[in-house]
């Protein structure tokens, strides 16, 4: 899994607000899985950011592991449906929960109690 941080106002040097989400490289099922607690595949900012990272990862993998039996250049991207957060500030908590509990395609519910636990 890769933690992702996307600046929401990259051209404003005073605004460091951003958004956390996760990308999982699933070798077993040969795909990339994007987990985001606010956005979905319909959001162009998410897909552009995620696809840029994934394409760079594929290129780097190919450069350093070109003779490996495992190749990832053909892996597709799946935007996993996740529970959406209830506020504009909980994305980091959701991302931490993805890392702690991700079992592949099953997103466990994240509740207010879970956020307090973190």
From TrEMBL:
Which Gene3D superfamilies does the record cross-reference, listed alphabetically? Adenoviral Proteinase, Chain A
Keyword annotations from UniProtKB, A to Z: Hydrolase, Protease
Q: Respond yes or no to whether keyword Protease is given for this record.
A: yes
Q: Which molecular-function annotation in GO is an example for this chain?
A: cysteine-type peptidase activity
Occurrences of domain Ubiquitin-like protease family profile (ranges): 14-99
Give GO BP annotations, semicolon-separated. Answer: proteolysis
Q: Member of which family?
A: Belongs to the peptidase C48 family.
Q: What is this protein called?
A: Ubiquitin-like protease family profile domain-containing protein
Question: What species is given as this protein's source?
Answer: Triticum aestivum
């Amino acid at each position: 899994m890769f933690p992702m941080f996307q600046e929401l106002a990259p051209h404003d040097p005073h605004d460091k607000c951003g958004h956390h989400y996760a990308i999982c490289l699933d070798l077993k099922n040969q795909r990339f899985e994007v987990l985001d607690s606010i956005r979905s595949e319909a959001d162009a900012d998410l897909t552009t950011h995620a696809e840029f990272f994934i394409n760079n990862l594929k290129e780097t993998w190919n450069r350093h592991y070109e003779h490996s039996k495992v190749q990832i250049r053909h892996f597709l991207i799946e935007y996993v449906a996740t529970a959406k957060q209830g506020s504009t500030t909980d994305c980091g908590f959701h991302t931490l929960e993805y890392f702690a509990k991700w079992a592949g395609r099953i997103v466990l519910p994240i509740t207010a109690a879970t956020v307090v636990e973190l």
